[in-house]
Amino acid sequence: IKLKYISLAILVVQNASLILSIRYVRTLPGDRFFTTSAVVMAEVLKVLTCLLIILFQRKDSS
């Protein structure tokens, strides 16, 4: 049960940090990046995070 809340908290922090970092970087002068590339990378990180959580869950249940 704790793992469920920990994984929820991790994903919430990850989503919030994505939004805040994109807003911060857009205010800086210099070269810009595509927002879509940042979103794709965030989704890849979400998948990796979820896979790690699943691995920890299976390890604990064994």
Automatic annotation (TrEMBL):
Presence of keyword Transmembrane: yes
Chief localization: membrane
InterPro entries: Nuc_sug_transpt
Record localization: Membrane
Membrane protein topology class: Multi-pass membrane protein
A Pfam family: Nuc_sug_transp
Keyword DNA repair included in the entry's annotation: no
GO cellular component: Golgi membrane
Record-annotated membrane-spanning stretches: 37-56
Top-level lineage group: Eukaryota
Entry keywords, A to Z: Membrane, Sugar transport, Transmembrane, Transmembrane helix, Transport
Example GO molecular function: pyrimidine nucleotide-sugar transmembrane transporter activity
Official protein name in the record: Solute carrier family 35 member 2
The species this protein was found in: Oncorhynchus mykiss (Rainbow trout)
